[in-house]
Design brief:
Hypothetical Protein Ta1238, Chain: A, 190 residues, two-stranded antiparallel sheet, 6 strands, 56% helix, mainly alpha
């Protein structure tokens, strides 16, 4: 038994609908479903990046992505069950530490903001791709959890913040995995 869009009881699930929570159905383009799809894509991209790390014989890269993968995988049950994420640390860094490092790379890594260029190397380029996927997922979360009664507010600010910090983490890791012979071609002008 399923509950349709208007609360009606359905014996079978129509192919045009999907599960929102339990046996409650919704349209497949519901913003929460779109968010879940972006989260799924981000997970797949992290797994693919781990393969690159293995091919490049960089177990540290692969291992750090494993911890990040576990963090990303924790977001879906938190959303689905409505449980708060609470304080978090990823790769030993708190939300505030991630924000600080991503906003002041010259202080922590000796470089100004990176200008995306092929010279940053395969691992950093892959991390940049993950950074952009995390941003897309964050935007989907903003849309999915928009509080219609209170513009500018979110029903899940913890998930939005977690994804924002995740993109910061990927950016921070880009500096760590720059090639040994990397020389900046310029800065992003930020």
């Amino acid at each position: 038994m399923y509950y349709g869009l208007n609360g009606e009881i359905l014996e079978t699930k129509p192919e045009t609908l999907t599960h929102l929570r339990g046996n409650q159905l919704t349209e497949k383009d519901n913003p929460v479903i779109v968010f879940r799809g972006k989260l799924d894509k981000l997970t797949a991209m992290i797994l693919e990046a781990q393969v690159l790390g293995k091919e490049k014989e960089n177990p540290a890269f692969t291992g750090e992505l494993q911890e990040i993968l576990a963090f990303v995988r924790s977001l879906l049950p938190a959303e689905y069950q409505g449980t708060p994420l609470g304080e978090f640390r990823v790769l030993g860094l708190s939300s505030g530490e991630l924000r600080e490092r991503s906003h002041h790379p010259e202080k922590y890594f000796g470089y100004t903001h990176l200008l995306m260029d092929h010279t940053i190397g395969a691992l950093s380029l892959r991390l940049n791709l993950l950074r952009t996927a995390a941003r897309e997922t964050e935007l989907a979360a903003v849309s999915a959890f928009k509080d219609e009664a209170c513009p500018g507010k979110s029903r899940r600010p913890d998930i939005v913040e977690a994804l924002n910090r995740l993109s910061s983490l990927f950016y921070v890791l880009m500096f760590k995995y720059l090639p040994e012979n990397y020389s900046p071609a310029g800065d992003a002008g930020i």
